[in-house]
Each structure stands twice: as C-alpha cells, then as structure tokens.
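Support request, please re-run this one:
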Amino acid sequence: MIRLAAVFGLMACSALAEQAPGWEGHWSGNANWCVRAGEVGDETPTWFGRDGFFGIEWSCDITRARPTGLPNSWTIDTTCLDAGFEYKQSQLFLLTVQDRLLIIDETGVTDNLVRCVKGQ
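Re-run finished. Output below.
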C-alpha cells in the first residue's frame, strides 16, 4: 500500500515538473502581429518556451529559471546568440493579472508583451 502511494506521488510530481511555465507561448509587443504566431518573418510574435526564446535571427537558451518567491514572477538566466554574437543575460519575468508579460533585464530595459492566443 505504501509503495503504491509512493508511485502515485512520484507520478504526480513528474506531471507537475512537465507542466508548462505560465510565460510559455507566443508573445508580442504588438497585438496585431499575433495572427502570425508560429510563422517566420518580420512582424511575428516571439516564442518563449521552457527551453528558450526564439526570434527571427536570434535565440536564447535558458540556463536557469526559478520563481522569485512572489506570485507569477521568475528570474531567467540565458545564453543568447544574435548575429553570431554570444552573450549571457538575466531577466525578471512578471505575469500580470491582465495576462501580459513584463520583462526587465539586468540593464533596466523593459518589455511589455501581450500573449498571443489562437484565434486572435
């Protein structure tokens, strides 16, 4: 009986670990671009996923993502490649009650993005 409970407990933990973070999805600073989510080209939303972020000519791999301790906020450390230049970056992600993603990087640059949902 105890073993069965342990197995179910491990299965539940595994399912939670695989759950997508709240910030996963297509995001854009311009809601009109959301109709082109998943496409490649100018004026398309950016994909933010648990492994990294991907734009037209750049990408960032997540090296560490952890909750800040405040609701709906994470610190994200990345290694990025943009036009052949590699750099590391730390950012603060905050999901608002309006389902917007606020991003603040270590230099103070901010983004205020709208979530792109299917049918938008």
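The longest helix spans residues 2-18. Confidence is low (pLDDT under 50) at residues 1-16.
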